[in-house]
Design a protein that fits this description.
single chain; mainly alpha; Arc Repressor Mutant, subunit A; Tetracycline Repressor, domain 2; 9 helices; 0% strand
């Protein structure tokens, strides 16, 4: 029997491990589909068709649509954003927020995040994925910025969780209300408030 070409062969898993090429193809297909059709037009069936993968493969690696959305978001963010280290919390937050809003605004990732939040309101599995997987992974770098500030003596370590919560609320408000214009002065004012840095001080 003649061998089929690589383009025609269906991608498959390697035993219990993920096939890296198949995983990359699925994430790429999911990202493209979200960019083209948004959350309302997103389906595992269409992702499978575009990636040349079977639905059972996708569901073996991502138990729910929310799990797949989380991994698409994580891959996108890793390629677009780095953690700033300016030497002060307020300026770290300014740089990070401007980059984050640009990431949400200029890539499908803002839509992915909003879709994940919407999905979490309707299914327990999506809520669990958002609360137990997405948030701990996404907040790791953010918490590190606040921990560095505590080590420098800028903020009390006991207030890290509260300040992180305030910062998350600020960003989610702008994301969910689709107000992601790069307003550096407004972002700086909020960054200074959350970091306890008076206006005009460096």
């Amino acid at each position: 029997m003649p061998e089929t070409s690589p383009a025609d062969r269906r991608r498959s898993s390697i035993g219990a491990r993920r096939n890296p090429d198949a995983e990359a193809a699925i994430l790429t297909a999911a990202r493209a589909l979200l960019a083209e059709r948004g959350y309302a037009g997103f389906s595992i069936e269409e992702v499978a068709r575009r990636a040349g993968a079977g639905k059972p493969t996708i569901y073996r690696w991502w138990a729910t649509k929310a799990d797949l959305l989380i991994d698409v978001y994580a891959a996108e963010k890793a390629s677009h954003m780095a953690l700033p280290d300016t030497g002060a919390l307020w300026s770290d937050l300014l740089a990070y927020t401007r980059a984050l809003w640009g990431f949400w605004r200029d890539t499908p990732s803002g839509s992915i995040f909003r879709a994940l939040i919407a999905e979490a309101q309707t299914t327990d599995a999506a809520l669990s994925a958002l609360r137990d997987k997405f948030l701990p992974d996404r907040l790791r770098d953010l918490c590190h910025m606040f921990e560095r500030a505590a080590e420098r003596g800028e903020i009390p370590a006991s207030e890290i969780d509260d300040r992180v919560g305030l910062y998350i609320g600020f960003n989610w408000l702008h994301l969910l209300s689709d107000r992601l214009a790069d307003d550096a002065p407004a972002i700086e004012r909020t960054a200074r408030l959350i970091s306890g840095q008076p206006p005009g001080r460096t």
